[in-house]
Amino acid sequence: MEAQSTGARRPAKGRVVMLVDNKVDGDSRVQKAAESAAAAGWDVVLLGLVRSGSGRSWKLGDAEVRLLPLKTPLGKRHAERHRSLLRRPFAYPPGPMAAYRRQWAKAWRADVASRRAALKVVPRAVGGPLFRRVEKLRLVVAGPVSKFMQKWVEFRARQSGQAQKAGRALRGPLDRAFTAVWRAAKGKRAWRRLEPVLWDYELTYGKEIDALKPDLIHANDFRMLGVGARAAVRARAAGRTVKLVWDAHEFLPGVRPWEDNAHWIPGNTAHESEYAPYADAVVTVSEGLGDLLVERHGLKEQPTVVLNAPDRPVEPDLLLEDAEPEPDLRALCGIGPDVPLVVYSGSPGPQRGLGDMVEALPSLDGVHMAFVVPSPAAGYIQSLLQRAQDLGVGDRLHAVPYVKHWQVVRFLSAADVGCIPIHHWPNHEIALITKFFEYSHARLPLVVSDVKTMSEVTRSTGQGEVCRAEDVPDLVRAIKAVLADPEKYTAAYDKPGLLDTWTWEAQAEVLDGLYSRLVTRSAKATS
Hints:
Layout: E1 15-19, H1 28-39, E2 43-50, E3 56-60, E4 63-69, H2 78-81, H3 97-121, H4 123-126, H5 129-169, H6 173-186, H7 191-194, H8 198-212, E5 216-220, H9 221-237, E6 243-248, H10 264-275, E7 281-284, H11 287-297, E8 304-305, H12 329-333, E9 341-345, H13 354-360, E10 368-373, H14 379-390, E11 397-401, H15 408-412, E12 417-420, H16 426-429, H17 434-441, E13 446-449, H18 452-461, E14 464-467, H19 472-484, H20 486-490, H21 504-526
Parallel strand pairs: 1-2, 1-5, 2-4, 5-6, 6-7, 7-8, 9-10, 9-12, 10-11, 12-13, 13-14
Antiparallel strand pairs: 3-4
Helix pairs in contact: 1-21, 3-5, 8-9, 9-10, 13-14, 13-19
């Protein structure tokens, strides 16, 4: 089915506009949702973004993907726009003034030195005797004054730099007071002052959604919730029936903030709280997260659980002849089939435990580790590779890029162990994350940390070992135990039905059923 252009006749099931605040590539949940919904008969347009450059579009199965160029002028903090008299009273205002004044002070000092030298070596070129006497007097004053001014300008320029840094960090007492005042004054509307950058998303996506005239909007995560809610309200005000599905990937109050400042969590949670009641249905990744959302937002219905499960593995002989060749994990690592290989696949970050894996490597003789990550060249990954070099095990740590979402399971199956040593954060406790299912379908023995839900499932199925989070010696113990007897753990995957519900195909049926109920219900209400 070809994606329909705006205004074209709709397919029987209706048009779905999906929203996500990333570039789509690398977000397997969103890709699979769009592709499977289109395959089920929905006219799907997936809107994502690019933070630099121009937008682009492509096809994902029968779904259309459009990336919109995002500009974030409202993301500039107050200190980047205004002079902060309370934070640094002597600072120059934001802009070129500090650099101009520093250069001006240096030029004055250079001029004073040049004039002094000229009086010594070419006095006649300076002027007559009377002028030279006046010039000497002027330089007696200009020398110390220009020196003082240079120091004063340097001081104010440092104040400007410190003000800008503190203003961007937003972690000081003034920032906490600002947050408290606006939360008290505006409640859940306080995000307009604390996180005005959210309006940049609205101004990027809003007109595009309106032009597509969707029957259903699927808003992924917290930033897109407000964008989708406002689009649905505009459509209803114009006389069209539009349903809003909010797909909550994480429990926002429990995330590690993308920006560690006094505004980020209060601003984004206020935004989420304002628009959660607008959703006609809520989708989430686990029952535990669903319970938290019901409690926090007073939802009338329990959220529908759609697991972050992978596609059912495709056998090589069923792949299309012109399909992209599958990468080989071991070949990318430069190792043979008999070398023990532990894999981590997913978004990197200190709270994910990748650093613990690197620290464990010296105690795992002959074992190699592979980090399958969005960008092996990223600064954090490069710092881990350097740490491995410092520990003398740099040749046994490898960073390789993501593969296509339908290739993930077969790609990971080349490893011997799937590792998930994540730390204790609220969101880590309540769900089975994507890589858990991907490792399972790859039939890998697991090593997981003792976060609540994942450790409980791993112990109950017997598919792996549990180690204490942030405990490197215990991580070493667990990896050695699995490598010593892998069949003990892979036998769990022979249990009938264990993997059947852990597939995206099963989850896609749930999502299609939800869409159908909402759109059919709205059609009946308007008939």
